[in-house]
From TrEMBL:
Highest taxon in the source lineage: Bacteria
InterPro entries assigned: MdtP/NodT-like, OMP_efflux
SUPFAM superfamilies for this protein: Outer membrane efflux proteins (OEP)
Protein family according to the UniProt entry: Belongs to the outer membrane factor (OMF) (TC 1.B.17) family.
Taxonomic source organism: Brevundimonas staleyi
Name of this protein: TolC family protein
The keyword Signal is assigned to this record: yes
Length: 417
């Protein structure tokens, strides 16, 4: 006859198993999210790319505006009118109607257009960089959500395996082949596995919420069916050309250099020409007027703005130098991390196969009474760790691919944009 002390773990475990089965038997999540490729096609609708597009449109509009010449000035001037003596009234007045135009000499217009074009080129490169970075953020959010979903499913499997082992241990306790302590330990392990499952569920829901926001999906993400973390990145090859970050820095340097010429031109006199018609009321006659005007550079020679433009150019040149140094180092590091992550994925896959076989043999030995529960627990823990390590390795490979793709100016797992 069984002791009542030996029945308690089994009864408690049975209640726990019923609760767990009820939770695991809930309806599956529906409406899976679109694939990463489908979401990548909509990357132009994200706020960062829309902002970059708007800034590019503004820069191109400034180029069009820079090509426009200044408007002429129309002037009307009356002299010798409504005074005293012979100048009372308007009979002896002189009225002049003139048209004045800024001639924009010394290459003033060309320098202005060159700066606007340089700024537009920089805005275009920034738009490309924003698109690449948006693709990287999308890939990271997608991969993290998929990894969180996979960890949740692994936690479900780990809980099921732990429950099965606990049941086997309770049977041995009932048969008197294991002490009561083993049953209590089994229940404790099942409770810990359940807590791990709850934590994995919270992480999954948080990752799904982030993916929904990053991808700007109309409905919340509930599951991911198309895998990204299982994709193999493109083969590493010789990377030629500057990174997008360096190209942006080069464009900023060119724009800063063109502003030096603008400030130099502004230091030169701004010549203006005028032509008009003058009416002499007393003689009932008219005559043409001509004129040229320019400021005398006695006080303001634009020295401060010229020096500021040179300083801005030196700063842009320093940023370009730093960007080139960092780009080379970052690219080498990203390639090394990608190679290491590929090796790590292969190693973890092999580790899973070995851990599964070790657990299978341990379970057979435990049920036959040749292996202790501690050895079974150790093999089960190794299997759970190996499966989670495989997910971590795949996520690390995606992150390395995202870093390298950003430096190469392309979408992750895709061709250059």
């Amino acid at each position: 006859m069984s002791s009542p002390f030996r029945r308690r773990p089994r009864i408690a475990a049975g209640c726990a198993l019923v609760a767990i089965a009820t939770a695991l038997g809930s309806p599956a999540w529906a409406d899976p999210t679109p694939s990463f490729e489908a979401l990548l096609e909509r990357i132009g609708l994200t706020p960062t790319t829309l902002e970059a597009d708007a800034l590019l449109d503004a820069a191109e509009a400034r180029v069009r505006q820079a090509r426009v010449r200044p408007n002429p000035e129309l002037g009307l001037e009356a002299e010798n009118a409504f005074g005293t003596g012979p100048f009372s009234g308007y009979d002896n007045a002189e009225t002049t109607l003139s048209l004045t135009q800024d001639l924009e000499l010394w290459g003033r217009r060309g320098a202005r257009v060159a700066v606007a074009k340089a700024d537009a080129g920089t805005a275009g490169l920034r738009r490309d960089l924003a698109t690449v970075e948006a693709g990287g953020r999308l890939a990271l959010a997608y991969a993290e959500a998929e990894a969180a979903q996979r960890r949740f499913r692994l936690a479900e499997e780990a809980l099921a395996v732990t429950i099965a082992d606990t049941r086997a241990a309770l049977i041995l306790v009932e048969e008197g082949r294991e002490p009561l302590l083993r049953g209590i330990q089994g229940e404790s392990e099942a409770a810990a596995a359940r807590a791990t499952l709850d934590e994995a569920k919270a992480e999954r829901d948080a990752a799904f919420a982030r993916l929904t926001a990053v991808a700007m999906l109309p409905a919340p993400v509930t599951s991911i069916d198309t895998s990204l973390i299982d994709l193999v990145p493109p083969a590493l090859g010789l990377t030629a050309g500057a990174t997008p970050q360096v190209r942006v820095a080069e464009a900023e340097r060119a724009a800063a250099e063109s502003r030096i010429e603008v400030e130099r031109v502004r230091a030169r006199p701004d010549l203006r020409a005028s032509v008009g018609v003058r009416r002499y009321e007393a003689e009932d006659a008219t005559a043409l007027t001509f004129g040229l005007s320019l400021p005398l550079p006695l006080f303001d020679r634009n020295r401060g703005n010229i020096d500021a433009a040179y300083a801005d150019f030196r700063a842009a040149d320093a940023r370009l130098m730093g960007a080139r140094q960092e780009a080379e180092a970052d690219r080498n590091a990203a390639e090394a991390r990608l190679r290491a992550s590929a090796s790590r994925v292969a190693a973890t896959d092999a580790g899973i196969a070995a851990a599964e076989e070790a657990y299978r043999l341990s379970r057979i030995g435990f049920e036959a009474g040749r292996i202790s529960q501690l050895e079974l627990r150790s093999s089960r823990t190794a299997l759970i760790s190996a499966r989670n390590a495989a997910v971590d390795a795949r996520l690390a490979r995606v992150r390395a691919e995202i870093d390298l793709a950003r430096l190469q100016g392309r979408a992750p797992f895709g061709a250059p944009q």
